[in-house]
Write a sequence for this structure.
């Protein structure tokens, strides 16, 4: 993955930016940049070997963007430690849910991993606190 592409996917947000009247790209404050490292490492080392390559569809969100959304994971995106992803494969929702649930249980509470399905095969991963939904 080229650095330019990587920056694009990390700084863009999912497709609702236009209807929310928010810019499609936002750069997190420099003091939050290190927050995403554990999450990216988790995706690289645990998620991708399990379900295959993924595409990031949402990462950092500004406070203004977050106020317009009604989701449980708002602080995780605002603090730049959460990612919303979709698998690049044709994995089904039930299989994805089973794989992610098994991974989450195996990692356990000490991992500080938050993980859950959002819609169909869109899922959220963060390393800001152990929970599932």
């Amino acid at each position: 993955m080229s650095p330019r592409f990587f920056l694009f996917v990390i700084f863009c947000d999912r497709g609702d930016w236009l209807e929310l009247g928010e810019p499609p790209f936002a750069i997190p404050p420099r003091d939050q940049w290190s927050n995403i490292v554990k999450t990216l490492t988790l995706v690289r080392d645990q998620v991708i070997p399990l379900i295959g390559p993924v595409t990031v569809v949402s990462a950092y969100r500004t406070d203004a963007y977050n106020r317009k959304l009604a989701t449980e994971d708002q602080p995780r995106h605002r603090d730049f430690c959460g990612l919303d992803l979709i698998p690049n494969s044709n994995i089904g929702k039930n299989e994805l849910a089973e794989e992610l649930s098994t991974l989450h249980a195996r990692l356990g509470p000490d991992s500080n991993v938050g993980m859950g399905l959002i819609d169909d095969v869109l899922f959220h991963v963060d390393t800001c606190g152990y929970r599932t939904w």
